[in-house]
């Protein structure tokens, strides 16, 4: 049957820069695997479901793009008498999509209602062929996941090697400083052989290669055991502190008499070891007696497929969508129709609602077991899992870390998502779903000499707790160290304990210092706690698994409520002369020396100590790792506030104390006012906003500043007592670095009227858990709900 739209549609094949959405709908998770299939627009390549929701029809009507390619995929039935081979991330299996699926293609016109246009039409056929060959969204992500992108660097390109000489084979057998005969790194500049850092899994190392690089400034080294005849090897630049590629490795090795063709690879590469390490961090999917944990299905019990190092994203999303505020904001009848946008995949509201429907509706929570196992290979059917490819791309766009396929810090992702969602527009009747996480911390400073006090407060959406680390005596020689368990109360006691900081009093001029203490001015409805368990081992920050004991039953936090200024306390002066006399900051000499010994410049060390209370080098180091990319990281600390006065015009509409904090960093005027307005008064996010909007002069913030008679903004959280909380969900991590290993989520779920149980969300696998105690001890992020 002919269609008038075919000739007039002016169809063109997708270019390499076009996104082709031919796996799942851009507005829901219905996909090519559903009975109705997916309709791919032949004009703009949007993917729309063809089933009862009919998002394809909505797209066709709104964009006047009636021609679509319907793709339906069905799984081939496979009889298997042996378990499938374990997939290795080192190579993509040769099995193709056509080996696993049957695919049916149909061309339709949604305007004319024709369901079977001629696929061989000269106008349509080349477009169909190009659509089916084009890389999809998720395919692009997978390719990045399997390959670690390495580049060369200036230190390799400009490297000056010493006089050519042949290093005799007997001198290639062990480190020049010790007897280690594995994990050996050859300095390409001078030919020195040094052992590497100790690696997870029993690979020894005393860091003599690093010591040589630090002493001589020779930055480039190659791992001897990783060299192959084909010219590949682990090349590391100590100056960049990154793995690199040396395009002239053969020539550089020949300078030391090492011929590539004669080499044989004898050790695992860094990439292989990282993959092996990640594979080891499996969370048990069996009970103590070896039985597989029971999968659970239903609303709120839908898994997320791992896109390749995306478990950090999946675990945080599961915990967020377990919160009532997220469920009400992004799922349900109150929301009305989806936003009418030209590209749904690029719209944050659409993608957040797509996730809400996918995770909460139960529509996609069903077993996916088309493989028939024999009686000798029992198979527990799990879910296929939703692919959050579009959301991952959207939330990471423009971000240096989250736009990559590398493993990331789950807590940093949480903060990033909160920032994105807070900046979005929200219907007045629904509000910002992150608001229940917000609360106010109050800090009290008291001069040791004049005893006068100053109180300041800061709105937050989470709290860090430093976990005390005390090694236990090893039970046997060579055993991995274990650490003494601590309670959550111990960590909170430390958080709110008094400490002495070195500041000069603005009131009396004393340099004796201040006592500093912080407490909760208000409590949130959802308390997010990040447990920091980091230590420096061989100059490398390493995550330490210290068990933190958390009660399963509700507990009170009343004792941590800040009492505020008492009647018998005298406040430090707030007049202009006192404001101009900014307390002088004297960095902790011992902590600063430790940071400098680690290689951090003095300016950065001073900034980190100022930001973290001037007491602990470890806390300062963590702050530095999180702020390495700050544009002003190397600008000397300036607390004078001389770079700008009070913001004009609308300055009175912003919190003067927060404005003063921004001014002390050289961030002032209408831009500072707008930054605070755009971020809900959060100083930290205001700073990020300012650096990410360098061209915004903030003029509209002055014009739109609210009238003074509107009154102050309502304080986040509540100070009502009792403040009783119960653990609701946890993000757990296994691995020695928060940027590697594996993340999962454990969430307390009501499975029926009579049963509430902990449920493990391990990517697409969702199972009921019998015992969660071990996981509670090694959690990384806790979500407590107020009860």
From TrEMBL:
GO molecular function: cysteine-type deubiquitinase activity; zinc ion binding
The species this protein was found in: Neurospora tetraspora
Protein name: Ubiquitin carboxyl-terminal hydrolase
Keyword Glycoprotein: no
Transmembrane segments: none
A GO CC term attached to the entry: nucleus
Family named by the database record: Belongs to the peptidase C19 family.
Catalytic residues (positions): 311 (nucleophile), 742 (proton acceptor)
């Amino acid at each position: 049957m002919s269609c008038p739209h075919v000739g007039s549609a002016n169809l063109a094949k997708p270019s390499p820069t076009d996104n082709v959405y031919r796996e799942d709908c851009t507005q829901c998770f219905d996909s090519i695997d559903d009975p109705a299939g997916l309709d791919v627009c032949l004009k703009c390549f949007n993917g729309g479901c063809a089933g009862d929701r009919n998002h394809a029809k909505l797209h066709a009507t709104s964009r006047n793009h009636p021609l679509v390619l319907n793709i339906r995929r069905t799984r081939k039935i496979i009889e298997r008498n042996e378990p499938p081979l374990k997939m290795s991330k080192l190579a993509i299996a040769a099995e193709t999509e056509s080996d696993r699926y049957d695919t049916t293609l149909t061309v339709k016109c949604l305007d004319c209602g024709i369901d079977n246009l001629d696929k061989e039409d000269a106008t349509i056929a080349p477009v169909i062929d190009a659509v089916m060959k084009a890389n999809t969204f998720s395919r692009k992500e997978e390719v990045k996941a399997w390959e670690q992108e390495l580049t060369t660097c200036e230190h390799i390109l400009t490297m000056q090697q010493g006089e050519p000489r042949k290093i005799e084979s007997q001198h290639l057998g062990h480190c020049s400083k010790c007897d280690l005969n594995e994990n050996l790194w050859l300095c390409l500049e001078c030919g020195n052989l040094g052992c590497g850092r100790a690696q997870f899994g029993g690979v020894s190392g005393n860091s003599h290669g690093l010591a040589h690089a630090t002493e001589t400034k020779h930055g480039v080294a190659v791992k001897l055991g990783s060299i192959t005849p084909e010219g590949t090897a682990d090349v590391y630049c100590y100056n960049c502190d990154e793995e690199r590629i040396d395009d002239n490795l053969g020539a550089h090795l020949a300078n030391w008499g090492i011929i590539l063709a004669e080499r044989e690879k004898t050790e695992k590469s860094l990439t292989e070891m990282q993959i092996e390490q990640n594979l080891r961090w499996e969370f048990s999917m069996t009970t103590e007696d070896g039985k597989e944990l029971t999968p659970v299905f239903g609303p709120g019990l839908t898994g997320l497929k791992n896109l390749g190092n995306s478990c950090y994203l999946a675990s945080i999303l599961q915990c967020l969508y377990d919160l009532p505020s997220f469920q009400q904001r992004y799922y349900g009848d109150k929301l009305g129709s989806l936003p009418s946008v030209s590209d749904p995949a690029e719209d944050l509201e659409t993608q957040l609602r797509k996730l809400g429907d996918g995770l909460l509706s139960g529509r996609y929570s069903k077993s996916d077991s088309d493989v028939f196992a024999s009686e000798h290979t029992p198979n527990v059917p799990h879910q296929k899992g939703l692919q959050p490819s579009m959301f991952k791309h959207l939330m990471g766009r423009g971000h240096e870390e989250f736009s990559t396929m590398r493993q990331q810090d789950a807590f940093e992702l949480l903060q990033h998502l909160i920032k994105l969602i807070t900046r979005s527009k929200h219907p007045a009747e629904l509000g910002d779903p992150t608001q229940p996480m917000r609360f106010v911390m109050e800090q009290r400073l008291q001069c040791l000499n004049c005893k006068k006090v100053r109180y300041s407060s800061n709105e937050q959406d989470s709290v860090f707790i430093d976990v005390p680390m005390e090694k236990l005596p090893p039970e046997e020689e060579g055993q991995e160290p274990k650490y003494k368990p601590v309670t959550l109360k111990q960590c909170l006691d430390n958080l709110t304990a008094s400490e002495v900081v070195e500041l000069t009093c603005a009131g009396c001029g004393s340099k004796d210092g201040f006592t500093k203490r912080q407490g909760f001015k208000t409590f949130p409805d959802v308390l997010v706690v990040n447990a920091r368990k980091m230590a420096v081992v061989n100059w490398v920050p390493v995550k330490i698994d210290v068990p933190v004991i958390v009660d399963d039953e509700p507990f009170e936090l009343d004792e941590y409520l800040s009492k505020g200024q008492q009647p018998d306390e005298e406040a430090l002066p707030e007049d202009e002369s006192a404001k101009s006399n900014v307390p002088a900051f004297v960095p902790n000499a011992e902590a600063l020396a430790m940071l400098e010994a680690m290689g951090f410049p003095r300016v950065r060390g001073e900034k980190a100590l100022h930001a973290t209370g001037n007491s602990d080098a470890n806390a300062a180091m963590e702050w530095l790792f999180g702020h390495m990319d700050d544009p002003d990281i190397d600008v000397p600390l300036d607390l004078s506030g001389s770079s700008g006065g009070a913001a004009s015009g609308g300055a009175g509409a912003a919190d003067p104390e927060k404005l003063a904090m921004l001014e002390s960093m050289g961030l002032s005027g209408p831009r500072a006012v707008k930054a605070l307005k755009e971020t809900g008064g959060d100083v930290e996010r205001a700073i990020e906003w300012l650096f990410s909007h360098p061209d915004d002069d903030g003029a509209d913030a002055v014009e739109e500043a609210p009238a003074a008679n509107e009154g102050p903004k309502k304080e986040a959280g509540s100070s009502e007592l009792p403040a009783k909380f119960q653990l609701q969900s946890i993000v757990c991590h296994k691995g020695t670095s928060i940027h590697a290993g594996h993340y999962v989520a454990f969430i307390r779920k009501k499975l029926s009227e009579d049963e509430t149980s902990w449920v493990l969300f391990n990517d697409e696998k969702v199972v009921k858990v019998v015992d969660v105690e071990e996981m509670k001890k090694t959690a990384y992020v806790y979500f407590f709900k107020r009860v």
